[in-house]
């Protein structure tokens, strides 16, 4: 059986992390979220964390070599499928990913890119009201609020904002996304492997739509 590979695309705040998580829970496929992995390294104060902290804080891309080696390590885990969230982000990373597939996955006929499309205005609004818990859960003050204000429903941890969710940094992240993503989306479109989803719907509705599309492609 070829391994299933889903690669999420979407601007900061589009909900790709939210949807990647729901899909991973449903399928049991492993999620590789480079942003989450970098943030975990920073929180654990590892050497890699110290190397990448300044890039995340400024909303700039981490150097490709560091990113590719982190992806390689994660792609070596045992799984029937992988869900990418936030990688690849430019032409070099696309090449790195295709090389890693050849080296590690060998063959896969089941690679699809999934674009979660939202306007910049919606993305900005979502990021301003995003709150996180150290346990990894992501909330939104209006669309996905915790039961009691400021506290995680599951672990009781205190909710906080991501330090790159400041208006100036968000503007830079959106700019980088728009500059780099067209080329990548074009690549998958030409391969006939691009699925586009309207990201301006309710979280549950988007998840259902993703499941429908994957079912019609016989991936789930
Ligand atoms: P990364 O962590 O990937 O951040 P991002 O791309 O900026 O995207 P976000 O995580 O901010 O948004 P999301 O689309 O996941 O939205 P979410 O689901 O949280 O990268 C961060 C940094 O790490 C980069 O700037 C870079 O420095 C570094 N990095 C990462 N990957 C790299 C790479 N490959 N190369 C180099 N550097 C890299 O949702 C947002 C909010 O909206 C939440 O509050 C959520 O609850 C809410 N929400 C979600 N869906 C909906 C909905 N349908 N309706 C209403 N609200 C919703
Ligand atoms: Mg995310
Ligand atoms: Zn928690």
Characterization of this structure:
The chain is an alpha/beta fold and 220 residues long. The protein has a single domain, classed as P-loop containing nucleotide triphosphate hydrolases (Rossmann fold), CATH 3.40.50. Helix content is 49%, strand content 15%. A 5-stranded parallel β-sheet has the order 2-3-1-4-7, sandwiched between helices. It has a two-stranded antiparallel sheet with strand order 5-6. Strand 5 and strand 6 form a beta hairpin. The longest helix is centred in the C-terminal third of the chain and has 24 residues. The structure holds BIS(adenosine)-5'-pentaphosphate, magnesium ion and zinc ion. Magnesium ion binds next to helix 1.
How helical, in percent, are the residues?
A: 40-55%
Rg over CA atoms: 17 Å
CATH class: Alpha Beta
Mean pLDDT across the residues is 96
Ions, cofactors and other ligands present here are: BIS(adenosine)-5'-pentaphosphate, magnesium ion, zinc ion
Q: Order of strands side by side in the largest beta sheet?
A: 2-3-1-4-7
Outline: globular
The CATH superfamily label reads P-loop containing nucleotide triphosphate hydrolases
Could you give a short account of the major beta sheet? 5 strands, parallel
């Amino acid at each position: 059986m070829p391994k299933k590979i889903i690669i999420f695309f979407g601007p900061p705040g589009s909900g790709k992390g939210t949807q990647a998580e729901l899909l991973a829970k449903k399928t049991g496929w492993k999620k590789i979220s480079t942003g989450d992995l970098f943030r975990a390294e920073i929180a654990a104060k590892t050497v890699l964390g110290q190397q990448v902290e300044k890039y995340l804080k400024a909303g700039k891309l981490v150097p490709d070599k560091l990113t590719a080696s982190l992806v390689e390590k994660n792609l070596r885990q045992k799984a029937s499928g992988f869900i990418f969230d936030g990688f690849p982000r430019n032409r070099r990373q696309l090449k790195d990913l295709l090389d890693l597939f050849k080296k590690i996955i060998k063959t896969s006929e089941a690679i699809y890119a999934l674009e979660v499309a939202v306007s910049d205005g919606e993305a900005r609004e979502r990021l301003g009201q995003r709150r996180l818990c150290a346990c990894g859960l992501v909330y939104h003050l209006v669309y996905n609020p915790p039961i009691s204000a400021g506290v995680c429903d599951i672990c009781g941890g205190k909710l906080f904002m991501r330090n790159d969710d400041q208006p100036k940094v968000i503007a830079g992240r959106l700019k980088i996304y728009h500059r780099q993503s067209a080329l990548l989306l074009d690549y998958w479109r030409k391969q006939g492997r691009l699925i586009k989803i309207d990201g301006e719907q309710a979280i549950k509705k988007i998840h259902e739509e993703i499941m429908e599309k994957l079912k019609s492609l016989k991936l789930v």
